[in-house]
Structures are given as structure tokens and as C-alpha cells.
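Re: [ENG-882] Designed sequences occasionally contain unexpected residues at chain ends

Forwarding the minimal case from QA. C-alpha cells:
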């Protein structure tokens, strides 16, 4: 039995003193600690605590004007010629069949990076794989600047004006005398409104709501292992990631890398935003370098290099089954209008 609480009992040191009479010699009462024995939590209760800690993935409600902006954002997202000369056409890199993920791409001012998934962003707290924004709309503005780098501002604005100028100004009215928001700012807000609606409900949601039978027993064991091994210390929240930054290679240097050592600047460079695992079964190859081809290999690598744990084959397979139980169908709006 676990000792979960301690009772504090006030005793009186001087024994035998008469009730009501002051203790002889004025001795102070002493504190005696008596351990309380409480029944251990059952596996069901432990699982319930884990579920509550993770929280639920919810679909954000949109009022009419947000709904209209999201609809325009969707049109822009699927437009093959968005940005001057199609420079920013989202579907050039973000593939709807893979939850938006894709292969390596170079963006202006950044290293070559795997294209991350772009669903369930409403549950993220950190955007960009370098975690540079805490708001999706801010990230979109900076992403658009990257995508349009090398294009003259006036060419970019002329292309936006022709394609979306009137529609955008209709959705973002501004008071007379105020300066109109820049077209790119309105585009960022429309795209962010649209992306925020892309939520992939999946069997794991039934499980998180309390129904053990919603996923297989093997996947349920994987859920428990995900906590017991420590994965959840980084991959937390309703999408099992998308919130924190972490150093890659905490327990063992990342493959092909040198030991982290104590060099602060180097550690800083190995900081990455923790990936969401909601759609991970659809987004191979893995990691920001697209270096690992299969999910079992990615899980083994994480356990070893982040936690210093070698997983048994059945543990690895259970975690993979759990990750697969999270794949859900994106809403129909994740296809061209
Ligand atoms: C040239 C390829 C390319 C194009 C075109 C592109 N993206 Fe990206 N996108 C990327 C890459 C690479 C990243 C990861 C960059 C990073 O980590 O900062 C990314 C990241 C993102 C993210 C952040 C996801 C996260 O995990 O935080 C969002 C959202 C996004 N893109 C949306 C869009 C939208 C909307 C468009 C169209 C306007 C678009 N992208 C066009 C390559 C592209
Ligand atoms: C110390 C923090 C930390 C721990 C612990 C951790 N991860 Fe990760 N995980 C990360 C980071 C950071 C990334 C993003 C790496 C990158 O961008 O290259 C990631 C990426 C992943 C990916 C690849 C996602 C993708 O789309 O490429 C998988 C799969 C994964 N983790 C599974 C796990 C599992 C399973 C465990 C437990 C055995 C675990 N992680 C433990 C920080 C962690």
C-alpha cells in the first residue's frame, strides 16, 4: 500500500496531567505524524486521470463573419495561382491526403524542412516547427512573407488585388477615416480562420471520452505505455504535441549528431517544436529532416534518444497501434471547393 497522506495529530507530552489543568512545567504539545493508508488507485482510475490530463479536441464554433472568412480562406488555400505567379499556392507543398504534410522544402531564410501537417491547429499553442509564433494568424503572416520572398511587393499586391481585393474588403470592414488593413493581413486572417476549422475526429476521441472499447486493447495498452515511458512529458494536450519546445537528442545524440554537451548555443539549435501525433500515421517520412521512413522506427528512435529507453517489440507495437488509432478523417472542407 502506498502512503498517500499523512495525518497530523497533536499529542500532549506531559502524560497524566489532570484535564483542564495546565501541563506541569508548561511543556509544549508535540506533533506526532501518523501515516494514513489509502487504497491504491485502480488501473481504471489511473487511466481516467490520464484522459482528463490530455483534454478533448473540440471543433471551434464560428459565427457568421468568421465562417465567411474561413470560406474565403478555403478558396485561397486551394487556388493554384495564389501569390504572384503561384509562389504561395498552399497545395504546392501541403498535401490534403497526408493531413497537409509533405516532403522536404526550402523556404526563404530557413533550413530545408519537412512540410508539417496542418490539421487540428486549433489545439496548438506553438506554430512553426521552430515554435516562432503563439498565434496561428501571426505565423501565417510570417509564412506568407517567406513564401513571397523574392517577389516585388507591388507585384504581390497587384495579384492579390485582382484575385481577392473586393472579397477581402467586404469581409474586413473598417471605419471611415481608419486605414484599411493590408491585403496580406486580411489574407492571413482568412487562412487562419479556415485552417482552424480543420479538425480530424478519430476513434481516440471516443476513448478519451471514457469508452475503452473505442480503440483496440493493444492501442489502449499503447496509450498507457505512452504515459509510463514518459512520451507524454513532451507530447501533451489533445493532439499529443503542438505545444512545447524540446531538445532533440536529450538522452543520446540524435543520429549523425555530436553529443549535446553543455554548450547552450548548440542546445538551442537542437530545439524543435514537439510534433502533434494526431495524424502521424499519415505523415511518413518522419522528423524535420524526413529522415526516418516508418512509424515503428520513429517510435524506437524517440524512446532511445529522448528518454534513454529501449522498447520491447510488443511495447513498440502497442504504441504504434495507439498512434494509428488517432488517425481521423479531415472534414470535407479539406478538399478543393
Ligand atoms: C514551398 C512550400 C510551401 C508552401 C507553398 C506553403 N507551405 Fe506551409 N509550410 C511549409 C514548410 C516547409 C513548413 C514548416 C516551416 C516551419 O517550420 O517554419 C510549413 C508550415 C506551415 C504551417 C505551420 C504548421 C505547424 O506545424 O505549426 C502552416 C499553418 C502552413 N504551413 C500553412 C500554409 C498555407 C495556408 C499555405 C498557403 C498560403 C502554405 N502553408 C504554403 C511549406 C510550404
Ligand atoms: C523530450 C521531449 C520528447 C519526448 C520525451 C518524446 N518526444 Fe517525440 N518528438 C519530440 C520532438 C521535439 C519532435 C519533433 C522532432 C523533429 O521535428 O524533428 C518529436 C517527434 C516525434 C515523432 C515524429 C513526428 C513526425 O511527424 O515527424 C514521433 C512519431 C514521436 N515524436 C513519438 C514519440 C514517442 C512514441 C515518444 C515516447 C517513446 C516520444 N515521442 C517522446 C520530443 C519528444
Amino acid at each position: 500500500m502506498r502512503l498517500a497522506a499523512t495525518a497530523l495529530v497533536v499529542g500532549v507530552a506531559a502524560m497524566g496531567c489532570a484535564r483542564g489543568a495546565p501541563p506541569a512545567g508548561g511543556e509544549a504539545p508535540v506533533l506526532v505524524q501518523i501515516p494514513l493508508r489509502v487504497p491504491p488507485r485502480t488501473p481504471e482510475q489511473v487511466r481516467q486521470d490520464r484522459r482528463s490530463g490530455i483534454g478533448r479536441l473540440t471543433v471551434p464554433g464560428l459565427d457568421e463573419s468568421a465562417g465567411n472568412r474561413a470560406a474565403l480562406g478555403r478558396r485561397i488555400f486551394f487556388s493554384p495561382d495564389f501569390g504572384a505567379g503561384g509562389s504561395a499556392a498552399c497545395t504546392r507543398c501541403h498535401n490534403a491526403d497526408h493531413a497537409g504534410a509533405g516532403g522536404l522544402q526550402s523556404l526563404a531564410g530557413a533550413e530545408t524542412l519537412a512540410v508539417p501537417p496542418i490539421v487540428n491547429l486549433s489545439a496548438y499553442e506553438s506554430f512553426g516547427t521552430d515554435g516562432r509564433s503563439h498565434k496561428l494568424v501571426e505565423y501565417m503572416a510570417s509564412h506568407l512573407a517567406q513564401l513571397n520572398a523574392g517577389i516585388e511587393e507591388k507585384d504581390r499586391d497587384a495579384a492579390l488585388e485582382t484575385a481577392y481585393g473586393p472579397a477581402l474588403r467586404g469581409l474586413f470592414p473598417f471605419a471611415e477615416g481608419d486605414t484599411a488593413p493590408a491585403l496580406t493581413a486580411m489574407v492571413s486572417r482568412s487562412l487562419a480562420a479556415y485552417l482552424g476549422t480543420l479538425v480530424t475526429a478519430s476513434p481516440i476521441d471516443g476513448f478519451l471520452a471514457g469508452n475503452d472499447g473505442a480503440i483496440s486493447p493493444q492501442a489502449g495498452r499503447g496509450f498507457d505505455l505512452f504515459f509510463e515511458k514518459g512520451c507524454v512529458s513532451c507530447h501533451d494536450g489533445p493532439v499529443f504535441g503542438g505545444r512545447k519546445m524540446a531538445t532533440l537528442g536529450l538522452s543520446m545524440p540524435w543520429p549523425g549528431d555530436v553529443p549535446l554537451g553543455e554548450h547552450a548555443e548548440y542546445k538551442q539549435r537542437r530545439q524543435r517544436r514537439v510534433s502533434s501525433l494526431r495524424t502521424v500515421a499519415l505523415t511518413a517520412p518522419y522528423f524535420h529532416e524526413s529522415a526516418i521512413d516508418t512509424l515503428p522506427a520513429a517510435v524506437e528512435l524517440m524512446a532511445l534518444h529522448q528518454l534513454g529507453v529501449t522498447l520491447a517489440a510488443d511495447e513498440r507495437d502497442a504504441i504504434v497501434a495507439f498512434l494509428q488509432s488517432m488517425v481521423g478523417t479531415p472534414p470535407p472542407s479539406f478538399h478543393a471547393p
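QA comment: On inspection the terminal residues look reasonable. The longest strand covers residues 3-11. Proposing we downgrade this to a documentation issue.
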